[in-house]
Amino acid sequence: MLDFSKLFAHTKGQDGKEDLLADHLQDVAEMARCFADKFNSGALAYSLGLLHDLGKINPFFQSYLKAMEENRSHPKVPHAIWGAAFMYYLLWSKNHKDAWKEFALPVYGHHAGLQAHGLASQRFSRFLKDDESIVESMVSGWTELQQRFTPESPSFSITNNTHREMRIRMVFSALVDADYLATEKHFEQQKASNRGKWPDLPELWECFQQDQDELLKKAEANPTKVNLIRREVYDACLDAAKKKRGIFKLTVPTGGGKTRSGLAFALQHAIQNKNDFCRIIVALPYTSIIDQTASEYRKILEKNGKCVLEHHSQVDVPDDKEEQNPKHLCYRLATENWDAPLIITTTVQLFESLFTNKPGRARKLHNIAKSVLILDEVQTLPPQLLKPTLDALRDLVDHYGVSLVLSTATQPTFDNTPYLKSFQDIEVKEIMPDYPRHFAALQRVNYEFRPDPLDWSDLAEEINNLSQIMVVLNTRKDALALIDAMGETPHIYHLSTLLCGRHRKDKLKEIRNRLDDGQPVRLISTQVVEAGVDIDFPVVYRALGPLDRIVQAAGRCNREWRDSKKLGQVVIFQPEEGGSPRGAYLIGKTEAQAMLKKYGPNELHNPEIFMEYFQRLFSDLSEKLDEKGIQDLRRDLNYPEVSKRYRLIPNNTVPVVVNYQDALSILNEWERDTSRRNWRRLQPYVVNIYHWQIEVFRDWLHPLQKDTLFQWVGKYDDVLGISNEAADPADLIVSN
């Protein structure tokens, strides 16, 4: 019989305290069960917690820990495969030939990531064959743990569909987060003790209601058409919040108060459906909107302390498999688990985490269960990934207690097309049934469509003659070409994801102040500025692109409607020398051109036009709505390949810390203390570059972690940010 009183899970903590293996296994099991109880998988998660580090009973692993404490070299000793291979052996021998996957895949992957079941089974068979004594040791260890903790036998049905893939993914998340938290409690007790100190959702509602009452009083004193419509949207959101959990649409024209009223819906929906919701998650396509939205929410809610977790991106944990070095463990513990009542994140962070196989990114997933999930500017979801994306969202609603809100002014027809089936047999409830009336009432711009191409010099001349104008182009290369053509024209501004978040925030503030003061502002931007950014120009030029993108850009024109008798001007033009992103974006651009010629630009005021536009777009892309074949890979439980292929940004990006304001001092603090708190402080100073650009920029990159985090040591331009002619994420539809 094993003596668990002499077996340890980790090296000693900073206080010299030992971490007994039995205690660690019990802590992880209990936390994992608590997390997974939200989606009726608590018994399975508890068993995974007891199994995950059972390989640490290996005497060679115990000697490895001792060597780490004494700062001696020692070969790494894998431990995750032990518990995984044991369950594979146990269930296979008892003729439960498929049930092993729910147990073995999460345990085997809790350091290195979820593996494909076929490859994993081969490794288990080889591992057991190489050392037959392992089974005897594991039987002894598992028997004693069962006697100590009496785990409940989990029950679940075996299916070969994407629901099973998601269930394994979710219990994996619960296990990983519990393991990280238990390890943090041992090594960093002070940080662990600070967790969980967030206000609950009813407290947030009290703060919101106080702020809303003040706003409504001001609006009543100034009963403009915009204020009246915003009140109607708000009241409709409160009324819809009483409905039961499900899928909702929030269709509101630009300036209709969608951001604030959407939060009101989420808070009240959570409160009205008592005990059904734990948190609110708001996902947006651009970091520039996150800066703005987080700032607005903080003004409303953070009167009595912090309550908003703003999560843009993260450092991927180095793939050191089962490294027990304390420094590596600190990196691992710095990843985010979304343990806050209100999360604001990117759609990239949300969905690539939902389809990842990496532990650090997956640890947050169980906290999506029982959440109100708002997808803002939902039309920006890449069409080539829609089938797996919508399937996962439907699964979250059906099996994980999520209420989903699809929020935009340009609503895609996910529930009304033969090419997408995930939402077809469920009621999708419109929060604003009378939304066409609001669009008609808030016609604040005149559209002009220029069918003939316009070269850069002619466009530059038009811009030079206007004091306040925003030009939105399809690629960064086009933006740079136009800026070059403008020569010495004063007051030129440029917005791009090659400016770090804090820099963009500062530029937007400067631009808003100049606009308010009537000063000249000539803003040249890529698509990153057009969806949801709170900025107001009298004139907007938009290069021909997908129809929804044109209307979103128009939402930055005459946004505040200060003079109800004066309309803004939106010019849709075709750059003679311009380029365009390929794929779905180019197809959307072609459809937009056809519809503009068919109906004329004034029909863009009618929100119903998007039913036809998206129907045509999805028809054109019907064979490409799962372009990477992700659904078949999910059914086959091929987690690494799913993770590789599901990319909202087609090329992998890596974070680069730039030298802007006090970024370097925060970076120094993060290197001394790689905590989540310091990583959050560092995020506003990060720019993401393509992974392939590492070699291109090698002379200007200082590695902080091998190929996963860098410091930019080249020029960081006040106008262009990282200034280089190479491609960058600003050319893409979405941004991390």
Any descriptors?
seven-stranded parallel beta sheet; six-stranded parallel beta sheet; 29 helices; Hypothetical protein af1432; disordered C terminus; single chain; alpha/beta; 4 domains; 21 strands; 46% helix; Rossmann fold; 736 residues; 13% strand
Mean pLDDT: 88
- Discrete helix count: 29
Q: Given the helix and strand composition, which structural class is it?
A: alpha/beta
CATH architecture of the largest domain: 3-Layer(aba) Sandwich
What is the share of helical residues? 40-55%
Query: Ends: how far apart?
Result: 52 Å
Poorly predicted parts: 314-320, 725-736
Rg over alpha carbons = 27 Å
CATH superfamily of the largest domain: P-loop containing nucleotide triphosphate hydrolases
Number of domains: 4
In the CATH hierarchy, the third-tier topology of the largest domain is known as Rossmann fold
Largest sheet: 7 strands, parallel
Amount of beta strand: 5-15%
Note the overall shape.
globular
Number of strands: 21
CATH class of the largest domain: Alpha Beta
Strand order of the largest sheet: 5-6-4-7-8-3-9
